[in-house]
Amino acid sequence: xxxxxxxxxxxxxxxxxxxxxxxxxxxxxxxxxxxxxxxxxxxxxxxxxxxxxxxxxxxxxxxxxxxxxxxxxxxxxxxxxxxxxxxxxxxxxxxxxxxxxxxxxxxxxxxxxxxxxxxxxxxxxxxxxxxxxxxxxxxxxxxxxxxxxxxxxxxxxxxxxxxxxxxxxxxxxxxxxxxxxxxxxxxxxxxxxxxxxxxxxxxxxxxxxxxxxxxxxxxxxxxxxxxxxxxxxxxxxxxxxxxxxxxxxxxxxxxxxxxxxxxxxxxx
Length: 268
Description:
Blueprint: E1 3-8, H1 12-24, E2 29-33, H2 43-48, E3 56-59, E4 62-65, H3 67-77, H4 88-103, H5 105-108, H6 110-116, H7 119-124, H8 128-137, H9 142-146, H10 156-179, H11 192-206, H12 218-228, H13 231-236, H14 243-246, H15 258-267
Parallel strand pairs: 1-2
Antiparallel strand pairs: 1-3, 3-4
């Protein structure tokens, strides 16, 4: 059996899959790519994943891509440890949550990640010609790259919109924790629903935006603390997988951008 994962260390979507692989204790080969090398836009990679994004799972030579699809695939293929409910109703609630994550917080986390997380500094050093060239190579995210200025990043309105999407996410999480009794989103068992959202909220904390939930969403705060301490989480979030570790000069981490959050909350 051959199982390989093409991924970036810092990619939230890659982290979702690494969390599941660690939880299931599956043996796999880490085909780690460096985002700045742009190998994910090369011809050989686009043959595996025409979307030109990570992660891509290669199982016995067959490529599976899109992180949520990979989570479901691994649940179907490797059943020795299960992280998906067997109850049909609860499974339907899980899948509704996975759709919510893919539509709202998963794309929304890109905005603060690019603006506060070091990528803006990288683009500032890049010529406009090189920047335009990279945009044109992207099969999917061209529109996203057109939505910000490479020298100044995103507008305050765009940043605050991403914050409001995360507030919507926290409200939904608080509901799920109460509805199914916790301590996890689908109740007593940790599932791929928890894995799907953990990297995005961990990213927001790493960017210093944790005041968005710390004092107002106690359920989310405790859920995050519990999820981060799982042994598999410590494996998946190895050193160098957080932006604060990749860009130490930015002094990221808990509370680092609390003034931005305060301004957002006052603007509401």
